[in-house]
Amino acid sequence: MTHERTPTSMPPHAPLAHPRQDLSRRFRDDSAPGVSPDRGAAVWRAGTFLPAAVGTGALLWGFLSWFATNGTTWAEGLLTLLIGIGFFWVALTFATVLAGAGAMFRRVAPETGPVRPLDVALLIPVHEEAPWDVFGNAAAMMERLAAAPGAHRWSLYILSDTRNPDRAAQEEAAFDALRARLPDLAIWYRRRVQNTDRKVGNLAQWVEHWGGAHDAMVVLDADSLMSAQAIRSLADAMGRDGSAGLIQSFPQLIGARTLFARSQQFANAIYGVALAEGLARWTGREGNYWGHNAIIRTQAFAASAGLPHVRGFRSRDNLILSHDFVEAGLLRRAGWSVRFLPRLRGSYEETPPTLIDHVLRDRRWCRGNLQHLGLLGTSGLHTLSRFHMFHGAIGYLLSPLWFLLLTLWAVIGVSKDRSVINYFSPDNPTVPNWPEMSSVNHIWLMVIMYGLLLAPKIVGALALVAAGMPVSRLGGWGRFAGSLLFEIAVSIAYAPVLMVQQTIAVFAALTGRKFDWAPQTREGAMQDWSTVLRFHALETGLGALLLLGMATGYVSLWLLPIMLSLAMAAPLSRLSGIVLPGTMATPQEVRAPLVAKRAAQWRAELKSSLTARPAE
Fold first, then answer.
1. Residue 501: burial class (beta carbons within 10 Å; 0-12, 13-18, 19+)
2. CB neighbour class for 581 (10 Å; exposed up to 12, middle 13-18, buried from 19)
3. Do residues 306 and 22 make contact, with C-beta atoms less than 8 angstroms apart?
4. Of 136, 268, 366, 514, which has fewest CB within 10 angstroms of its CB?
């Protein structure tokens, strides 16, 4: 089945010009009112970046002093620089969490002023998803909006790029069921004949054909779910702020059942609040876009954020993959503000259920974020928009950097006599003359490494409780403390495996390995042993090498946690899919939101009806 739905499944066309932008020329949208300087955000920016820079400088001074014992070579200087680069980005995250923790205690006055009523379209792009989940979430959101519609008008569009004919038939049946059950609501469905340019092209086609009928669009992912209050709050914020081109909510994870997914969900709910608060403070009106659960001014997006194809490593005609960062930057350069509302509650999404599912999604994101390095020269971008794109790329490039540093730590050995390679060559003054790796030095390196991993978690958790989150919403003190310790143990166990997998993703992206756009797995299950052993063969081999080095006395025993994680990568990956209900409880789980309860009911009913009938 390759036909589109009949015309009655979509409203009359309301065309809107959506030209592709020329990234080599500045652009200003004549309808944009402009963005006033945000002095408050500038203060927060300085208060976040300066401590990270000072801390990095202190670390670099310590390493250079350490290396200077026998004279500093260029190689030692280069290593120090690499350490500084890695440390700064981690320190910036910690400084952002600290800033956010402090901001959580500051009362923010509610926005006031007249709200311009908006005609808002909720857009859900779909590609090979379970129809009962997508349409069930959509029904729950529209049902709750209809219960108290307010001043704004709402329409919902499900924009399908599904190719599988059986799945497409189920989508159409689900749409018919929603129209029959909710006949008074504006719910529309369209499946494209060709999925040109994937999600970017899907949304662009909607803008060009139907965008003219709507003041704003709330872009959702297939697994997105938002309460009526959250959607109305986004619309109210845009209705008050005529300069806002995009307003991003803080999506929180729900619905996790497996070990890996529940650890991600817990981290997002407990530690992510302070991080989001800090990020909102120093980004101000130069915020970012995460591709979903955000409201966008349709006219501004159409005029300012049309994405061209760009030159890549092996081709001159490449689709911009991680389009959200770029669209936010283009809106800001056109004169529209991009805001982030971290305190808006009721915005939800799901997360991949297993380690392998997470890695496969991460590989797609890695390619898109590294592509941003070639877009940093886009004419007219705000400095902070460039930083967002650079920061996204660095987030992936840090993994090969940490991998290199850990490799050097391993090959340096435990002493001059016990080193994998001999660095002590008096005939070659350019070869690093490494200082002795004493037990004290090993301890300090471990403290720095794991301290950077754990400090943001501890600060974020303490800030959440101190700022007023009832511990009863976290399962009580005993359960909350156990969840914290369990999540920390899980994150330590999986961190080295994720580092290696991101290193693989970076090299795959840089070498131009073919990109596959596969649908994301939502359900998840424990993979069989043959799958996890093949997938994690590299980590297992590296773990075995570290074990051999430790057994022979050439590799420091302080690397034991990393060795165990890598050597046990396959079992850990398989365990990531084990179902653990009730562990690492979050506030959204202890007291489930009404929209989530209704979505679960809708999903169950639709699944029952759609799977009971044969596909047409």
1. buried
2. exposed
3. no
4. 514
* 61/273 Cα distance (integer angstroms): 33
Least Cα distance to 231 among 342, 337, 152, 343 occurs for: 152
Cβ distance 366 to 505 under 8 Å? yes
Tell how many helices (H) and how many strands (E) occur in the chain: 20, 10
Question: Which of helix, strand or coil describes residue 300?
Answer: helix
Both tokens of residue 382? 């705000």
Count how many residues are written for the chain: 616
If we measure between CA atoms, which residue out of 373, 396, 412 comes closest to residue 500? 396
CA distance 550 to 260: 29
Q: What is the DSSP string of 449-478?
A: HHHHHHHHHHHHHHHHHHTT--GGGGT-HH
pLDDT, tens only, 519-540:
555 565 678 899 999 999 999 9
What is the torsional sign of CA 541, 545, 546, 547? positive
The Cα 286–Cα 56 span in angstroms is 25
Burial class (CB in 10 A: 0-12, 13-18, 19+), 383: exposed
Amino acid identity, position 493: A
pLDDT surpassing 50 at residue 113: yes
CA distances from 325 to 45, 207, 393, 449, 509 (A): 19, 19, 11, 29, 18
- Tell me the pLDDT band of 148, cut-offs 50, 70 and 90: confident
pLDDT one-digit tens code per residue, 356-409: 999 999 999 999 999 999 999 999 999 999 999 999 999 999 999 989 888 877
Q: Which residue has the tokens 């993979």?
A: 527
Q: Given this model, what pLDDT does residue 426 score?
A: 46
Question: How many whole angstroms from its chain centre is CA 285?
Answer: 20
Specify burial of residue 289 (Cβ count, 10 A radius: 0-12, 13-18, 19+). buried
Grouping H, G, I as helix, E, B as strand and the rest as coil, residue 358 is: helix
According to DSSP, residue 614 is labeled P
Helices 74-103 and 383-412 sit at what angle, rounded to 10 degrees? 130
Beta-strand relationship, 216-219 and 294-297? antiparallel
3-class state of residue 345 by DSSP: coil
DSSP lists the bridge partners of residue 252 as: 348
**Separation between Cα atoms, residue 449 and residue 90, nearest integer Å:** 10
Residues 6+ apart with CB under 8 A from 152: 117, 118, 119, 120, 232, 235, 239
Radius of gyration of the chain (CA): 26
Distance of CA 175 to the CA centre of its chain: 30
* Cross-strand bridge partners of residue 159: 125, 190
Q: Is the pTM of this model over 0.90?
A: yes
Task: State which H helix or E strand residue 36 sits in.
Answer: none
Average pLDDT over residues 160-166: 93
Please name the residue that has the structure tokens 């500051």. Answer: 106
Beta bridge partners of 226: 347
Where b means 16+ CB within 10 Å and e means fewer, 157-171 reads bbbbbbbeeebbbbb
Q: Encode 101-136 in three state secondary structure.
A: HHHCCCCCCCCCCCCCCCEEEEEEEECCCCHHHHHH
Structure tokens at 284: 């101000």
Q: What are phi and psi of 137, to 5 degrees?
A: -65, -45
In Å, the largest CA–CA distance within the chain is: 85
Q: Which helix or strand (DSSP H or E) is residue 496 part of?
A: helix 477-510
The whole-angstrom separation of Cα 392 and Cα 322 is: 10
Determine which of 421-425, 437-441, 448-452 has the lowest per-residue pLDDT on average. 421-425
The rounded distance, in Å, linking the Cα atoms of 258 and 387 is 35
Residue 185 identity:
L
